[in-house]
Write a structure and sequence with these properties.
Blueprint lengths: L52 E5 L5 E5 L11 E5 L4 E8 L2 H10 L9 E6 L2 H12 L1 H15 L4 E7 L5 E7 L7 H11 L2 E6 L2 H8 L23 H6 L6 H4 L14 H8 L9 E4 L2 E9 L4 E6 L6 E4 H12 L7 H26 L1 H12 L59
Parallel strand pairs: 2-5, 7-8
Antiparallel strand pairs: 1-2, 1-4, 3-4, 3-5, 6-7, 9-10, 10-11, 11-12
Helix pairs in contact: 3-4
């Protein structure tokens, strides 16, 4: 029996990452574009009936919604047979219950004119064998189809393929800049592959989503993991965020502007609304007219300089708005050098106040107490005769002496006819004098 985070029924627990879709694990290690079921751990009231629509996942991250008229007991990861325009298709259950109700409401699939397919049955073992056999043929079929397109000289690119579970239909996903007449191509495909052919045009962003990859940020592409709504990204997002027009860095793997350029666009729009609306802001000062040279949105600063000067002075946004208000009232603002001196004095006073506050806290004593508290306690030796390293030193406390070649007596010399200079008499003279 499986665990609560995935719908596996065998194996004694969750399938590991890279399990070839043997169950959608809670870690999402083997699947992308998963839907987190927030209601999985909530106990439903007595008599509750499961929502009659389930989410089925197919190859390439494609998801569709189907009715469950037979009220089959389905779990996440189960393979089911669903209706198709010809024959049947096989997909895996990716979501059930109340989370599907929210997805159907979000996508507005209950409106009139939208017809959802039905789930026929749970896939049997022979059907699964046929399904994996069709999946193994996809790479060879796609390679042969690309060769045919090159031979015919069509200006299109076949990016991916999805073969139906029963092997009776093949969907080719392609991208093209212009409209392509591929009627003759479909006839050749049908004659060669002996299946029904469907050509489906996708955008470049959808192509990158199906193929996947790793972005410059080091993470998996957003479009292949969680992003499903591709919004328009244009040069307006670049201009608002003050980014350089380097298309090599701004373009994603799809060849279009990165979708992440829109992630922080609202924050930048809110910040830019407080800045002056002019492209080049000019302020009249007592020393002349100063023009804006640079704008730092995140730091809320603007850099100004005179026309004949190369020294730029950074000014806070609040001070710039005050100077513009003075010009609007007919007054001239102080010079940039005066304002810079005032800002330096304000910063120095703020630092002095901070230092006074730190001195008042007596940080040195606090740090000293922390150091003494964190200092490791030294263990005392267990035995008084134990010295450094915990080993007994039998010569500790004794004066070392030199041993001669004839024994331990220091008064003996090698030559008996020569007096020993180390031996002295009462008159502090060597013996023999």
């Amino acid at each position: 029996m499986g665990c609560s985070s995935c719908g596996t029924k065998e194996g004694g627990g969750c399938s590991p990452a890279g399990c070839k879709s043997n169950g959608t694990c809670g870690t999402s290690g083997c699947n992308s574009l998963n839907t987190l079921d927030w209601f999985s751990d909530i106990d439903m009231p007595t008599g509750y009936e499961t929502y009659g629509i389930v989410e089925v996942r197919f190859g390439g991250g494609r998801k569709e919604y189907y009715h469950n008229p037979n009220k089959l007991d389905l779990f996440i990861g189960d393979y089911v047979c669903v209706e198709s325009s010809i024959g049947f298709d096989i997909g895996s259950i990716s979501a059930t219950g109340e989370i599907v109700r929210l997805q159907v409401k979000k996508k507005n699939l209950t409106r009139p004119g939208v017809e959802l397919g039905k789930i026929i049955r749970v896939s049997s073992q022979p059907e699964m064998d046929k399904y994996w056999e069709c999946k193994d043929k996809e790479n060879a079929t796609l390679e042969r189809a690309r060769t045919t397109c090159l031979e015919m000289g069509l200006k299109m690119k076949l990016s991916d393929i999805d073969m139906q579970g029963d092997g009776r239909k093949v969907i080719f996903f392609y991208t093209a800049e212009e409209r392509v007449d591929f009627r003759e191509l479909i006839r050749k495909f049908a004659t060669e592959f002996k299946v029904k052919i469907e050509m489906r045009h996708v955008s470049y962003r959808e192509e990158a989503s199906r193929l996947g990859g790793v972005g410059v940020c080091g993470r998996t592409l957003c479009c292949s993991t969680w992003l499903t709504d591709y919004k328009l990204v244009n040069n307006y997002s670049i201009r608002i965020q003050n980014l350089s027009l380097n298309m090599e860095k701004l373009n994603g793997q799809c060849g279009r502007l990165k979708c992440c350029l829109n992630f922080e666009l609202d924050t930048y729009l809110e910040a830019v609304s407080e800045f002056p609306k002019h492209k080049i802001t000019r302020i009249e000062t007592v020393d002349g007219v100063a023009s804006s040279k640079k704008t730092d949105i995140l730091k809320r600063e603007m850099w100004f300089a005179y026309d004949k000067s190369q020294s730029w002075v950074p000014l806070p946004l609040e001070r710039v708005n005050e100077m513009l208000a003075m010009n609007k009232d007919g007054e001239k603002a102080p010079s940039l050098l005066t304002i810079r001196e005032q800002l330096d004095n304000e910063r120095s006073e703020a630092k002095l106040e901070e230092l006074d506050f730190m001195d008042m806290l007596d940080v040195d004593d606090m740090l000293k107490d922390d150091i003494e508290f964190d200092k490791p306690r030294q263990e005392k030796p267990k035995n008084k005769r134990q010295g450094k390293g915990g080993k007994y030193n039998k010569h500790k406390g004794k004066r070392p002496h030199n041993k001669s070649a004839h024994g331990n007596n220091p008064n003996k010399s090698r030559r008996p006819d020569k007096p020993n200079p180390n031996t002295k008499n009462k008159d502090n003279k060597p013996k023999g004098e």
